[in-house]
Amino acid sequence: MNKNKNVVIKRLETGVAGLDNLLGGGMPEFSFNIIAGSPGSGKTTLAHQIMFAHASEKHPAIYFTVLGEPSLKMLRYQQQFSFFDSKKIGKSIFHINLSEEIVGGDFDRVLERIVEEVEKHKPSMVFVDSFRSIIEAATNVGHMPSKLQNFVQQLAMRMTSWQATTFLIGEYQLPEKDSSPVFTVADGIIWVSQQVHRDAMVRKIQIVKMRGQAQSAGLHTLRIGNDGVEIFPRTILPPGAWGQEANIHFPGDKRLSMGVPALDKMMGGGLPVAYSLLLVGPSGSGKSIIATQFLAEGVRMGEPGVIAAFEKSPNQLLSQQLNKLVKSGKVGLIDTRSLDLSIDETLHNLVAMIKSMQAKRVVIDSLSGFELALAPVFREDFRESLYRMVAVLTSMGVTVLMTAELEDRYTELRFSSYGNAFLADSIVLLRYVEIAGEFKRVISVVKVRASEHSKDIRFFTIGHDCVIVDERSIGYQSILTGQPVNFGVTTQWS
Known about the structure:
Elements: E1 11-12, H1 19-23, E2 27-28, E3 32-37, H2 43-54, E4 61-65, H3 71-78, E5 93-97, H4 99-103, H5 107-121, E6 125-129, H6 131-140, H7 145-161, E7 165-171, H8 182-185, E8 188-197, E9 200-210, E10 220-225, E11 228-232, E12 255-256, H9 261-266, E13 271-272, E14 276-281, H10 287-300, E15 305-309, H11 320-327, E16 331-334, H12 343-357, E17 361-365, H13 367-373, H14 376-379, H15 382-395, E18 399-405, E19 426-435, E20 438-448, E21 457-463, E22 466-469, H16 474-481, E23 485-486, E24 492-493
Parallel strand pairs: 3-7, 3-8, 4-5, 4-6, 6-7, 14-18, 14-19, 15-16, 15-17, 17-18
Antiparallel strand pairs: 1-2, 8-9, 9-10, 10-11, 12-13, 19-20, 20-21, 21-22, 23-24
Helix pairs in contact: 5-7, 12-15
C-alpha cells in the first residue's frame, strides 16, 4: 500500500471574480457548504452566479426555494445580471418551490421532496434558499434541535453520496453560527455581510471554514455590479516575495529619471527602481506638475505609467500634458470618480492595469484625496492598508510616486501628513519661504534610503507644465543677493 497516495479533491471554479483566490483555488467538489449572512448582503446573487457558471445539460443544477414568494419573482431580478442565461432555465437549471412542504414543518416530507427531485434530475449542484426558513418552521411546530440536526446530517450524507456540490443559503447573524447545528456539519462556510457607516454602505465576505484546503483569512470587500458579485481580496505580500515578479535582485541597482535633471542630481542620480517616493508640500507648491514630469519622462524612456488621480475628475485632469499622455495610451488612468472605495479595490484595479500595460511607474495623486474617496469604514485602517498597497506595488518592480498635501505652518518642519513618512523609501519636500515680503518655492531631498543625496535647499520655479530647479543652493544665492531668507524655523540665511 502506498502511504503517499492521497485522494485528490477537484476544485471547481466559482465564476465569481476574486472568490477562487479566497477559497484557495476554488470550491471543493461534492462539498456541503453554507452561504450565510444578513439580509441584502448578496447571498442569493452569489449563489446564482456560481450556479449559472457551472450548469449545463450534462451537469444540471437544482435551486430549491422555501420562501413564500414565487421563483419567477426571484428570477425577474436575477436576469438583470450579465451572468444570467435564460436558455438554461428548464434545461440545465431547475427551480423547485418547497413552501408547501415547509408549512407543516415536516422534515421527512421536505427531505423526501428534495430526494425525489435530485433523483429525477441528477444534478451536479444543489441549492436550498432560504434554509433559515426550514429552521424557523421547525421552531414554530415545536421540533427539538436534535431532530433538526438529524435532518441536516441526513441531507448532507445524501448529497455527498449523490456526488452533488451543495449550498444552503440562509439569513444568519454572527452569534448564531456558534449555536446552530447547521454549521457543525458544513464542509465550507461563506459569510457575507453589509455595514452602514455614516452615509456609506459596504459589503464584505469572509471564508469562515473550508475543509481540506488553505483559504484567505479576514474580511474582504464585496461589490455587486451589472456583472454580479465581484470580490477584492485583501492583498498581503507573502514572505520572501519581494521582486519575484519583477526579477529584481535588490533595490537601488537602477535609477529612474524624475524628468527634472537638477532634482535627479539632488537625489543622487534619480529615483531607484521599485522605490516609493513621497512628494509632500502645501497647496500649489508644484506636486502634481512634478508627478506629471515623472510620468512624461517614463513615456519618453519607453516606460508606461499609471495614475490614480483622486484630486480631479477626468474632465479636469491636472494638465494638458497629462491629458495628452493618457489619450496616447502610454499612461493609464484609474477611474476614481466613485466614492466608497476600499484600498483593496483600488489596488486590484491598479495591479490589473499595471499588468495589462506592463507599466513601470505609478502615481497616486494625492493621498489626502485617496483617503477621502474611501468609504468611512476603511479610513480607520488607512495607514495599515496603504502600507500593504505600497509593498505589493514595489514588489512587482513598479516605482511609486505619491503626493501628499502638507499644510505649511511656517513654525514647524514636518515631512508628511498623518505620519505617512514611514511608507516611503524617499521623501522630497516642497515649501514656501518668505523673502522681502514675497513667497518663493524651495525644494529639498529629505531622504533616499540607502543612497547618498544632496542636503541642499534650492529655489525652483513653475514654468509651462514643468518645474525648473535652480542648480545652486539657497544659501549661496542669499549670500550673493544679501537678502535674508526666513524659513519659518529658527535658522536664517544671510
